């Protein structure tokens, strides 16, 4: 039988929709000895991780923790805890992940009202307000739609939720750690993310935070939470002061997340946000200099994930395959109605580097039979 030590895993430049590259410090942290999840030393690791997560979410919410599972587990935890059968929920859908939110809400027994926008466009606040006028317990939106590269402005959505008395749930999977989320300043009631995007830890945890209004709704439930594993009435007891056993925490993953969050704290949020925007601007300049068109209008583009239209006559899968096999660079293809029509280029966390942008531009130019020199000069601002 082949041993894992014999497995030849290449070190890729990860510029797709996730996962992103992982700093060597995070990998070293994950090689620390495994200890029990009820060990006092691990409790200290948990406390530090929660406090570091509060910093990235920009919140003082006591219930701020990593859900044991990927970002989809964070989504499911938010929905099944905040919604009961019969609750009315308004869900913004302008891509795959808004559709998933709506699906999860329907599975929880909620009466879902979808407010839809074309893939590649943000949600219309007037359409959201019209839906909220009928009353709603919850308004849910995707901040950074990974399937399209659209950045949804949160300020008008938060104002609508407050005006109509709805809880505001935000999917920040592709924004947390790369773009401001500002949970407290905006009055976001619950927010979830994933470790493998801008936080640059391996996939497997879902950072989650819930404020006082969300917890009040949780405590006032008439029905049990539909998911035992994701029931926050029990999970918060393990992460709270009593450390009441619920499930075996993924100890090694939490080591890695703690170290990834320490790296963010050392860099500083504002400096990190600026790095993401400036690197993305260089990418956009270079892509446009190669003659490529972007899917999303300039004012709605998401800096951490760029959707590029595939030129006519180009086999988009063949280009991605050549980038991977010849240049060791991973980018993503389109999903749903955009399958075969776009490439998705991620600049997140540890992967968000100027050298990666320049290497991608050279490789993409070669794949398309175009010259890279002018694109590189333009990307550099020359």
Brief characterization of the structure:
The protein is of the alpha/beta class and 382 residues long. It contains 14 helices and 14 strands. Helix 11 runs parallel beside helix 13 (354-368).
What do these coordinates show?
Helix 4 (96-107) links the parallel strand 3 and strand 4 (111-116). The chain has helices at residues 24-29, 40-57, 71-82, 96-107, 125-132, 155-164, 183-186, 212-219, 232-239, 251-267, 269-289, 316-327, 354-368, 373-379, and strands at 13-14, 63-68, 88-93, 111-116, 138-142, 144-145, 150-151, 167-171, 190-192, 205-210, 305-309, 329-330, 332-333, 342-346. It is of the alpha/beta class. It starts with 12 loop residues before the first strand and ends with a helix. The chain has a seven-stranded mixed beta sheet with strand order 2-10-9-8-5-3-4, sandwiched between helices. The chain has 14 helices and 14 strands.
Quick tags:
single chain; alpha/beta; 41% helix; globular
Query: Structural class, from helix and strand content?
Result: alpha/beta
Radius of gyration: 21 Å
Strand percentage lies at 5-15%
| Series of secondary-structure elements, N-terminal to C-terminal | EHHEHEHEHEEEHEHEEHHHHEHEEEHH
Q: Could you outline the blueprint of secondary structure elements for this entry?
A:
Blueprint: E1 13-14, H1 24-29, H2 40-57, E2 63-68, H3 71-82, E3 88-93, H4 96-107, E4 111-116, H5 125-132, E5 138-142, E6 144-145, E7 150-151, H6 155-164, E8 167-171, H7 183-186, E9 190-192, E10 205-210, H8 212-219, H9 232-239, H10 251-267, H11 269-289, E11 305-309, H12 316-327, E12 329-330, E13 332-333, E14 342-346, H13 354-368, H14 373-379
Parallel strand pairs: 1-12, 3-4, 3-5, 5-8, 8-9
Antiparallel strand pairs: 2-10, 6-7, 9-10, 11-14, 13-14
Helix pairs in contact: 2-10, 5-6, 11-13, 11-14, 12-13, 13-14
């Amino acid at each position: 039988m082949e041993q894992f030590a014999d497995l030849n895993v290449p070190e890729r430049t990860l510029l797709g929709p996730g996962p992103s590259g992982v700093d060597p410090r995070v990998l070293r942290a994950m090689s620390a000895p495994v200890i029990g999840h009820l060990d006092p030393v691990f409790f200290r690791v948990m406390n530090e991780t929660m406090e570091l997560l509060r910093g990235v979410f920009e919140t003082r919410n006591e219930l701020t923790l990593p859900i044991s599972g990927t970002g989809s587990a964070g989504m499911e935890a938010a929905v099944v805890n905040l919604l009961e059968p019969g609750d009315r929920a308004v869900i913004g859908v302008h891509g795959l992940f808004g559709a998933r939110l709506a699906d999860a809400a329907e599975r929880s027994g909620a009466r879902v009202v979808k407010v839809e926008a074309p893939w590649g466009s943000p949600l219309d606040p007037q359409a959201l307000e019209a839906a909220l006028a009928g009353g709603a317990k919850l308004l849910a939106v995707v901040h950074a739609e990974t399937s399209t590269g659209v950045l949804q402005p949160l300020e008008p959505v938060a104002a609508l939720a407050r005006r109509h008395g709805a809880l505001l749930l935000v999917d920040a999977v592709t924004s947390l750690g790369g773009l401001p989320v500002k949970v407290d300043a905006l009055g976001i009631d619950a927010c979830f993310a994933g470790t493998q995007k801008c936080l640059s830890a391996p996939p497997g945890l879902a950072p989650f935070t819930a404020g006082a209004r969300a917890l009040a709704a949780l405590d006032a439930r008439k029905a049990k939470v539909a998911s035992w594993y994701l029931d926050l009435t029990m999970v918060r007891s393990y992460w709270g002061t009593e450390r009441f056993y619920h499930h075996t925490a993924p100890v090694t993953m939490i080591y890695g997340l703690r170290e990834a969050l320490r790296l963010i704290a050392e860099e500083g949020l504002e400096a990190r946000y600026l790095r993401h925007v400036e690197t993305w601007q260089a990418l956009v300049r270079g892509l446009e200099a190669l003659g490529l068109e972007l899917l999303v209008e300039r004012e709605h583009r998401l800096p951490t994930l760029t959707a590029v239209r595939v030129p006519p006559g180009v086999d988009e899968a063949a280009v991605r395959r050549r980038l991977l096999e010849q240049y060791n660079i991973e980018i993503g293809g389109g999903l749903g109605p955009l399958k075969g029509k776009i490439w998705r280029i991620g600049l997140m966390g540890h992967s968000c580097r100027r050298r990666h942008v320049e290497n991608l531009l050279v490789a993409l130019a070669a794949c398309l039979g175009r010259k890279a020199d002018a694109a590189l000069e333009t990307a550099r601002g020359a």
